[in-house]
Amino acid sequence: MIAALTWLLLYQLAGEVLARVLSLPVPGPVIGMALLFGTLVVRGYLGRPIPQPMQQTANVLLQHLSLLFVPAGTGIMIYLQLIAEEWLPITAALLVSTVGGMAMTALILKALMGRQQPGGVSDDA
Amino acid sequence: MMPERLNQTWVYLSASPLFWLTMTLVAYQLAFYLYQRCGQRPIANPVLISIILLVSLLTATNTPYHRYFEGAQFVHFLLGPATVALAIPLYGQFRKLVNMAGPLAIALVGGSLTAMLSAVFVGHWFGGSLPTLLSLAPKSVTTPIAMGIAENIGGHPSLAAVMVIVTGILGAMVAQTLYRWLNIRDDAVAGFALGVSAHGIGTARAFQINETTGAFAALGMGLNGLLTAAALPGIVSWIRPWLQ
Q: Is A77 domain-assigned?
């Protein structure tokens, strides 16, 4: 568990360093995720599976991913005044764009996959 | 004598990171318990309930947010390693990803542009101020990316973080109803759309559905983060004349 956590932090650190050095617009953790993904792909080609402790640590972290958003979300209390003043544009924008973005992504993907594999995409249904 | 002691203890505790860290976890446990009791119905979103509990408690005790965050930052910090860890479920779907690369890329661009542009223009039609609109623009990507972009284009970074989280909660709440209407049954499609439009909270929701949905949500979240970070500053400078 600690070894796996150390690796995750090392990848995050590498991501932060790359983001700063190359002045990339993407945050360090996302680059860290891409680096770890690349490592796993290379290991896969060499016939090595994901190390067990790494899998377990990832499961623990991701099972309660929602908890990790609570501290930032509680920051809404600072903006209650502004949100009260602009509640209509904010609510309308959030509703339309969240539902719209989700529907658009899902419908495009569904349409394209139906064309790619005639007869549907029920290989894991 | 006794009330004086209690008061001193409260003054000490309310300023220590331990208290607000513990309250964050207690609020989440309570919220998660309620979510389970409601049969895991998306409307009882655990993030939403936790935030309502904590904001009520902070307001009732007159505690400023920055003092709360001194304790809660230890939980917040784990977002970094958790984001890195998303590579693992993602790798589990590697073969499928390669097969679907083309459709995924097109759906990503379509969904991402729809979310960005509709947020800004709908907000504008309803009379939102420019800094608010610019804080809304990056609302579909994960918190740290959205904060960076908002700062870059002239929004409020911490307001952007709040918009991101509300978006995530909303997306997690509506996804299954929306998919029922649109007749979306494939786990990969459902997950990818959740990740693209509702980032980490959508991804958290997707992992509660199943592993495949979660992995595709992680992919959608990561790719939309990259695309939005790269494209939004340019798009904003292009549409700015329409927002005056």
A: yes
Last-in-domain residue among A63, A79, A99: A63
What residues make up the domain containing A7? Answer: 1-63
Which chain B residues are closer than 8 Å to A50 by Cβ? 88, 91
Query: With contacts defined as CB-CB under 8 Å, which chain B residues touch A22?
Result: none
How high is the ipTM of this complex? Answer: 0.85
pLDDT, tens only, B170-214: 999 999 999 999 999 999 999 999 999 998 889 888 988 888 899
Please, what's the b/e burial string for B5-20 (b: 16 or more CB within 10 A of its CB; e: otherwise)?
eeeeeeeeebeeeebb
Contact B142 A30 (CB under 8 A): yes
Alpha-carbon gap, residue B96 to A115, rounded angstroms: 16
How far is residue B140's CA from residue B197's CA, in Å, rounded to a whole number? Answer: 5
Say if the Cβ atoms of B120 and A93 lie within 8 Å.
Answer: yes
Whether residue A58 sits in one domain with residue A16: yes
Interface of B with A in 3-42 (CB under 8 A): 24-25, 27-28
